[in-house]
Amino acid sequence: MKRSLRIITGYFLLWTLLFMVAKVVFMLTYHDLYTGIGSGDIAAVLWHGLKMDFATAGYLTALPALLTVAGTWLNPRYTRVALKIYTALSSLLVIAIIGVDTVLYGYWDFKLDITPLFYFTTDPAAALASVSVWTVTAGIIGLIIGTWLLYLAIVKTCGIDSYTVERQRRWATSGVMLLVTALLFIPIRGGMGVSTINLSSVYFSNNMRLNHAAVNPAFSLMYSATHQQAFNKMFRLIDPEAAATIMQRVTMSSPTDSIAAPLLNTTRPNIYIIILESFSNNLFESLDGEPIAIGLDSIARTGYVFGNMYASSFRTDRALPAILNGFPAQPTTSLFKLSEKSRHIASLARTLEEAGYKPRYYYGGDTGFANQHTFLMSTGITDIITERDYDSSIPRGKWGAPDGPLFDRPLNDITADYGTLRFNIIQTSSSHEPFEVPYANPRFAHDAPCNAFAYTDSCATAFINRLAATPAWDNALIVLVPDHYGCYPHNPDPTDIITRHQIPLILCGGALARQGVDNRVASQVDIAATLLDALGIENSEFTFSRNLQSPHIERVAFMSTPTYTAIVDSTGVASVYSIERKLFDSGTPHPSTTADSINAAYLQTLYDTLYKL
Q: What's the CATH code, domain 253-553?
């Protein structure tokens, strides 16, 4: 019995110790983000995170505990082998989770969930494209060493090699071990209270960095994986009737004839949507940023700009439905994962094709990554140009053909046939990590991200200027919009959630009838209704999208990541809801301001809509 108890207590305590050490390593890795914290803060992180560490250790100890129960009746050799196999596999898994969480936090600013698993399982090579070979190699070596050391520590500490059973006490041993195994339910559940443990259980500080450090990444991943599909039961924050009333108000559009000046000077222009990877207002001097995207900034000054627009989320797979379908990003999932549901949402491509347009998608990379190809096909885009369609002589980066050759292809297609009514979508990729581009701007000789942004800017600007020199220009409407905020400035304030989502929407082309800057609140989801209204095409099925030209709509912008949702209302007032803490920024679990109510209604309605698709 003592040997069995040694195994269970050894597993539980070693897992707990590992998770505590991992927290310290995490904070040391991101020491620049934890500047100013003292030993008291570190102790608080460890103390408040202990409950979640206990829960995760309990899950990881449950199977060894059951093996010791079974081992009282089996040959001890079989039990020793089973325990060693389990120890090796669980050590590999946990070390991998801790390592991936530590690496990704610097990019994503939230704890590990199933999102990277989704990216990796759809296209492992693309998922690792942002990571250098040396980083991957070091990671694999670290994984092997860490797994081996943890395996040895558990085997030696728990005495697995010397495990045996006193056969004359089998009944007593198995009975006690069953009881001990059942007691693991207490830490797994998070105690004896009414509520069970969740991500917010370890939040203790107004400093979200400290809260994130307290979260156990293995628990976060498991929690995310088991809380994905009950859309009709998620985020019940407000009375359904009240939510419906609010949503009717903030999504209602005015009649087209109430618009003072038309957006277009023609009824059927060719439309080119250029999706700029990771661009933001910070790259445009005319939008109070830095002079980095100087070519597009020059074009913006002579075009029509929405300078107070917000990205719907933080990654491309959540941005494309917002841009192309007028459907807001969801914090806990992505429409890219939900192929069957994405078939039923409104689609710019389908709507425009019914009006005579020919949709075509241009991307220099692999649309198999993150299930993008399936999403595009399910929303009506069947003509898709990808990496394999570009000449093999073109040097490839980790994300495929660079943006220069990317823009050459649609320009050649346009000049080859001026008679086709086009709806072209061009998705750039060169301004994505690892920022390896065939371009060297002396201004950014020591700044790879800014050099990559300048490269994409030069490519998009060249495309527009070359198009302007053709007969196709007079009937062209070009829509430039980033997919999400990016990596500039290099060290953004993590608490400034709203500003981080600010992106420009730039319109230009010979078909554009307006110039100037509109600084009212706008969202990516509004692009669909704005374009369709300008074309005189019915768009009522785009229920979240509003015509930004309408003078009477209530301007709001909704945005989300796996850790929060946020809203900016028409007056510029913001509301942030922490998904982990289940609290609004006012400190209450339910709306306490008008902006909170819009945030809650939007989130709740979004998930109701998702459930019904």
A: 3.40.720.10
